[in-house]
Design goal:
The complex is a heterodimer of chains A (102) and B (479). Chain A is mainly α and 102 residues long. Chain A contains 4 helices and no strands. The longest helix of chain A has 31 residues. Classes of the chains: A mainly alpha (102), B alpha/beta (479). Chains A and B meet through helix 1, helix 2, helix 3 and helix 4 of A and helix 1, helix 2, helix 3, helix 4 and helix 8 of B.
C-alpha cells in the first residue's frame, strides 16, 4: 500500500472537471422520453459508493464505527441493487412499433 | 499481481463501463444494454473491493474478521432487500422508489464521512489537513441532507405524509438550522483539525439530517420531481467528495458524472415546469394562487363515452394527451387497445407527452411503455404542439394542469408561463375525467369550459371500455 500514489488536490480537480463535462455531455443529448430511466440509471451509478463504505468498514477500529459502517454498506448496497433493478425493468419495456410502420 | 493492483484495475474498468453504459442509455434502442453494461461494472467493483481486506491499516487488523462479517452481512441484506423491493414496485410508484434508493446512496456517503471523522489521529495521517477534512465534512453534509430529504420526498409522493408544512418564520427556522449545521461542520474542520469528539461528530450529522427534513417538508408534491433530481445530484457530489477522501478515483468519476448530469437534469425539469430551482426550494407553490381566479365563462358539457369513441373512429387525426390520472385508473392497457382499433380504421393516432406528465419527467413514457405502446408514436411537447391545430380530436385522459390554457393567457394564475400542450387548438377536445375537481396545483382549468370541449365523466378504465365497445359494435355490424 505504501507505493500507492496519493491524489493531490489538483489531480483530483482534473478528474472532477473531466467527469463533470462527461456527465453534462451524456445527459444533454438524451431525449426526454428517457428522463425517468436515466435519472434512475444515474442514481444506480452513484451506488458505487458502496465500495467506499466497504473500504471504510474494513478499516473500522471501534464498535461505533462498525455500526456506522454497517449502515453505510447496507444503504449503499440498496442504492446500487435497487437502482439497477428498477432501471432495467423500465428500459426493458421500451419497444418500437411492429415493422408495419407507416 | 498485488491485491491493490487488481482493485485499481477493477475500478478503472468499472469507471469505463459506467460511462459507456450511461452513453448507451441515451437512446431507446440501446438503453437496455446500457444498464446491463453498467451493472457489470458495479459487480466487478464490488467484488474487487473485498480485496481491501489485504490492505487494512495496522490499527484495524485486530478487528478485521468482525469488520469483514459486518460488511458482507450489510451487503447481503441491502442487496436482497433492494432487489426484492425493486422487482415488486409498481411503475406508478417509480418516482418515490428512485427517491428512496437515491437517499440511501446519500446516507452511505454520509456514513463514510462519519467513519473518517471518527478515526483517531495517527502518525503521518491527515491531522490538520483542511482540504481533506473540509471535503469530508462537505460531502457528509450534502449526503446527509440527501438522505433525510429524499426520505421526506419518498413519504410525500407515497402519500405517507399529506399536505405541506408551512408556518410563519419557516425561513428563519430553516436558516438557523442551516447555520448551526455549518457552524459545527466548520468547527470540526478548522478548530478540531478533523478530530472532534464523537458526540460532536454525531451532533453534526443529526443537524444535517434535520436540515434535510426542514428543507423538504415545505415543498409541495407538484415540485417533488425537481427536488428528487436535485438530491440525486447531491448524492452524486457527496459520493465524488468521499471518493476524494478515500483516494478512490472510481467514486470520484462516478459521483461527479452523476453530480453534473443530475444538476443539468434538475435545471431541465425546473425549466419544463416554469420554475427556477431556488423558487422550488425557497418559496411555496400555490400559496398565493387558487383563490383569486375570475369566474369561468361557459359551462362544462358532458358527452357519452361511446359517442366520443365513435367520433374518434371517423376522425383522420387524433392526439392523446395522457396524464398521471390515466395510470392511477390503470387504464393504459385499455387506452392502447382503443388506439389499436383506431389505427386499424386508418386513424392517425399520436401521443403527446408534456415534460412533467406523470410524477416525474419521462414517467408517462415509462407508464405507456408498460402498456406496450411503441415509443415511436409518442411525441414530446415541442415536437407535437404545432400539430394540434390539424388534429380533428384531442383527447385528454387524466391530465389537467399540463393542458390548462390559463398558463398562456391568465397572468394571475399560479401556473402562468408554464409551457402547456396546445390541446385547446384541436377542432374537438374530449376530456376524460373522474369528477369536476381541480388539478394537482389546485387551479381551475379553463379548457373544460371551452366551446369545443366536451367532458367524458367517469373512471378512465370504464370510459375506455365503453369507447372500445362502441367502436367494435360499429365496425362489427356496419360493413
Amino acid at each position: 500500500m505504501e507505493a500507492h500514489t496519493v491524489l493531490t488536490g489538483f489531480v483530483a480537480l482534473y478528474i472532477f472537471m473531466l467527469a463533470a463535462f462527461t456527465g453534462y455531455e451524456i445527459i444533454g443529448r438524451v431525449p426526454s422520453i428517457l428522463h425517468t430511466p436515466l435519472m434512475s440509471g444515474s442514481n444506480f451509478v452513484h451506488g458505487i459508493v458502496v465500495v467506499g463504505a466497504i473500504y471504510a468498514t474494513l478499516n473500522a477500529t471501534t464498535a461505533l464505527e462498525q455500526a456506522i459502517g454497517f449502515f453505510g454498506v447496507l444503504l449503499g448496497a440498496g442504492n446500487a441493487a435497487g437502482g439497477y433493478v428498477v432501471t432495467e425493468r423500465m428500459l426493458e419495456m421500451f419497444k418500437p412499433s411492429d415493422k408495419k410502420k407507416g | 499481481m498485488s491485491p491493490q493492483f487488481i482493485v485499481d484495475a477493477a475500478f478503472i474498468a468499472a469507471a469505463f463501463l459506467f460511462i459507456y453504459g450511461l452513453k448507451r442509455m441515451s437512446s431507446p434502442v440501446t438503453a437496455r444494454s446500457g444498464i446491463v453494461v453498467a451493472g457489470w461494472g458495479m459487480l466487478v467493483a464490488v467484488l474487487a473491493s473485498f480485496l481491501y481486506t489485504f490492505g487494512v491499516t495496522e490499527a484495524a487488523k485486530p478487528h478485521l474478521t468482525v469488520n469483514a462479517i459486518v460488511a458482507a452481512t450489510a451487503l447481503a441484506i441491502g442487496v436482497s432487500w433492494a432487489w426484492w423491493s425493486g422487482k415488486k414496485v409498481a411503475m406508478t410508484a417509480m418516482p418515490q422508489m428512485v427517491a428512496l434508493y437515491n437517499g440511501m446512496g446519500g446516507g452511505s456517503a454520509a456514513a463514510i464521512a462519519a467513519m473518517v471523522l471518527l478515526q483517531p489521529a495517527v502518525e503521518g495521517g491527515h491531522s490538520g489537513d483542511l482540504l481533506h477534512y473540509g471535503v469530508t465534512v462537505f460531502g457528509g453534509l450534502i449526503g446527509a441532507i440527501s438522505l433525510s430529504g429524499s426520505l421526506i420526498a419518498w413519504a410525500k409522493l407515497d402519500e405517507r405524509i399529506k399536505g405541506t408544512w408551512r408556518y410563519t418564520g419557516l425561513q428563519a427556522v430553516n436558516g438557523t438550522v442551516m447555520l448551526i449545521t455549518l457552524g459545527i461542520g466548520g468547527w470540526i474542520v478548522f478548530a478540531a483539525g478533523g478530530h472532534a469528539p464523537p458526540m460532536i461528530v454525531v451532533g453534526f450529522f443529526m443537524a444535517a439530517l434535520l436540515f434535510g427534513v426542514f428543507m423538504t417538508m415545505p415543498i409541495g408534491g407538484a415540485d417533488m420531481p425537481v427536488v428528487i433530481s436535485l438530491y440525486n445530484a447531491f448524492t452524486g457530489l457527496a459520493v465524488g467528495m468521499e471518493g476524494y477522501v478515500l483516494q478512490n478515483p472510481a467514486l470520484m468519476i462516478a459521483g461527479m458524472v452523476v453530480g453534473s448530469a443530475g444538476t443539468l437534469l434538475t435545471l431541465l425539469m425546473a425549466k419544463a415546469m416554469n420554475r427556477s430551482v431556488s423558487n422550488v426550494i425557497f418559496s411555496n407553490f400555490g400559496a398565493t394562487g387558487g383563490e383569486e381566479q375570475g369566474e369561468m365563462k361557459g359551462a362544462m358539457k358532458p358527452i357519452d363515452a361511446g359517442d366520443a369513441g365513435i367520433q374518434m373512429r371517423y376522425a383522420q387525426k387524433v392526439i392523446i394527451a395522457p396524464g398521471y390520472g390515466l395510470a392511477v385508473a390503470q387504464a393504459q392497457h385499455k387506452l392502447f387497445e382503443f388506439v389499436k382499433l383506431l389505427q386499424a380504421a386508418d386513424v392517425d393516432v399520436k401521443f403527446a407527452i408534456h415534460p412533467v406528465a406523470g410524477r416525474m419527467p419521462g414517467h408517462m413514457n415509462v407508464l405507456l411503455a408498460e402498456a406496450g405502446v411503441p415509443y415511436d408514436i409518442i411525441y414530446d411537447m415541442e415536437d407535437i404542439n404545432a400539430e394540434f391545430k390539424e388534429a380533428d380530436v384531442a383527447i385528454v385522459v387524466g391530465a389537467n394542469d399540463t393542458v390548462n390554457p390559463a398558463a398562456r393567457t391568465n397572468k394571475s394564475s399560479p401556473i402562468y408561463g408554464m409551457p402547456i400542450l396546445n390541446v385547446d387548438m384541436a377542432k374537438q377536445v374530449f376530456v376524460v375525467k373522474r369528477g369536476q375537481g381541480k388539478g394537482y396545483s389546485g387551479v381551475e382549468n379553463e379548457l373544460f369550459f371551452k366551446d369545443n370541449t366536451n367532458m367524458v365523466y367517469g373512471d378512465a378504465q370504464k370510459v375506455m371500455v365503453s369507447m372500445i365497445q362502441a367502436v367494435k359494435s360499429l365496425d362489427g355490424g356496419g360493413h
